[in-house]
């Protein structure tokens, strides 16, 4: 669920949606989502002063609290 949400948001923001990949690493109490986008699109995903990345993390946190797990978003370059 969270993986699909991050992928959808990222694909909506970037110029090259085909290059968006989200890798999910499951742990006992937390889940790590690794987001990888094109080098040209990294700024669009992070935003000015990290505002877009913070907003995506907030949405992800709200979505994951119902499962009782913590979700962490890592944007890889």
Number of helices: 3
The strand order across the widest sheet is: 1-2-3
Helix content: 40-55%
Q: What are the segments in which pLDDT stays under 50 over at least 5 consecutive residues? A: none
Name the beta content range: 25-35%
In short:
One of its GO terms (biological process) is peptidoglycan biosynthetic process. Helix content is 40%, strand content 26%. With 77 residues, it is of the alpha+beta class.
Structural description of this entry:
- InterPro entries: KH_dom-like_a/b, KH_sf_prok-type, KhpA.
- GO terms for molecular function: RNA binding.
- It is found in: Cytoplasm.
- A probable RNA chaperone. Forms a complex with KhpB which binds to cellular RNA and controls its expression. Plays a role in peptidoglycan (PG) homeostasis and cell length regulation.
- This protein has 77 residues and is of the alpha+beta class.
- It is built from 3 helices and 3 strands.
- The protein has helices at residues 2-13, 42-46, 51-64; strands spanning 21-26, 30-36, 70-76.
- The longest helix has 14 residues, at 51-64.
Labels describing this entry:
alpha+beta; 3-stranded mixed β-sheet; globular
Furnish the topology, listing elements before pairings.
Elements (H helix, E strand, L loop, with lengths): L1 H12 L7 E6 L3 E7 L5 H5 L4 H14 L5 E7 L1
Parallel strand pairs: 2-3
Antiparallel strand pairs: 1-2
């Amino acid at each position: 669920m969270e993986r699909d949400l991050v992928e959808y948001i990222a694909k909506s923001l970037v110029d090259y949606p085909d290059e968006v990949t989200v890798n999910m690493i499951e742990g006992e109490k937390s889940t790590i989502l690794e987001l990888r986008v094109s080098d040209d699109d990294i700024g669009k995903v992070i935003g000015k002063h990290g505002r877009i990345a913070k907003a995506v993390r907030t949405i992800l946190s709200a979505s994951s609290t119902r499962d009782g797990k913590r979700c962490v978003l890592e944007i890889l370059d």
